């Protein structure tokens, strides 16, 4: 079985969270206490590695308070062909694990519900009860052992079902659930990492047919031995009750395998014993990292192509990392990403990472990033660009975001997005904003990108705006006439009734056509005489002559090339020379300062 996504209800802060994907890898991002570790805990509950306690149950909202009545995690699984044939189930299957007030976990599957209630939960019944049911429904079996009885009754139940709902899961199906192995970044115990890895390998070993055969032999021998031990008790019952002809005691024996411990002993080349708890957090984490790096080969080996017809194909392995970069420097954070990539590339292996690391968040497809955060009621909610709810954020938009320099971490966390026309604005705006506001765009929570004449960048801006992100589009006043993508009709298509709030026509308030024309003649003269001198000084009249023309910047650039001893290498370089020579906030044109004030309000 391959887990594709899971949903949680009533587990810690995850009062109701739907469709957390399982990818290669999935990144769970978000602030502290936002629900990342809880999401991993819920995954562990679904796959049988976490036991729900009273403290795990979500608090109810409202005046009554108290804990929720039940906790459930529902997984959407994909069954392989062997599993479909073995269990008679469809390719797509929903499985839930849940507990009620008694905290006794139960597995159930969604599908046809048997019409007879006694067939709906066979797993908890004893062999005599199963035999009675088989007799009642006319099911004849030559060897009525418990597994055979369960399979026969389950098949009968499927054939006599007229509705859909939750019913008991075949016990053997639990053996096909993915193996979960967990790596906690805050743990300084490398032995825990080794135990977790070896536990997965041990389960694989125990599932091999020859090993299972030996275990069954031991169970049979133990069952026969217990039968002999129980014979005097059974005879005694017959002696005491004259109306009872015979008593048989059938003992069910199960040798459940578990890895008790795995100790790690280290010794330096000099013979000196090493105590990791005295070596610093980074050293202990690096030893743990080495252990986990070594698991990549084990996972690849586990995910081979050989299929045992008795045991079935290898099951999915899910590696869960909880803040794996904790206590690691930048170099080792990059190595973590490499380990995760190698593990994710293995067949039948998926990786889920809860992290704050921008390296990890930026290292995957944006569609595989899940942002978990708390709402006003202190309940975890999910924001995921590229989920089924946001299908319009496809690979194309993700590529556009990457091309314009918007990393995943920026898309998820920045408070405001500023889109400008092209390279000129992309170079100049950060310096002008810093001079005007006394802080960088990044410090203000503003992400800048250039549309570059690309309508795809506008699609990205409209997507962010549609999903309640603060977006401003800053374009020259004359761009509507010069570029079809900035025509009012196209902007309306992207931003609807918010068009005039989102799109700022720069220069319109000052009666000019473009960004370059906002700077006065004295500023241009000062820059030109320093950067592009000529025979005789430049004067304000030289630049004033180009104002009111169709394109002020083009006329000035041509003039500088024709008459200057040196000249700018292009329009972006020309404005750059102007901007870097500004010293005071008042040197920034007033219209730009007003735009920056509006930006600060949006980001706030």
TrEMBL record:
It comes from Saccharothrix ecbatanensis. It holds the Pfam family AAA_21. Residues 322-362 form the ATPase AAA-type core domain. This is Putative ATP-dependent endonuclease of OLD family. The keyword Nuclease applies. Keywords: Endonuclease, Hydrolase, Nuclease. One of its GO terms (molecular function) is endonuclease activity. InterPro entries: ATPase_AAA_core, Bact_Antivir_Def_Nuclease, P-loop_NTPase, TOPRIM_OLD. It comes from the Bacteria. The keyword Transport does not apply. The lineage of its organism: Bacteria, Bacillati, Actinomycetota, Actinomycetes, Pseudonocardiales. Residues 417-478 form the OLD protein-like TOPRIM domain.
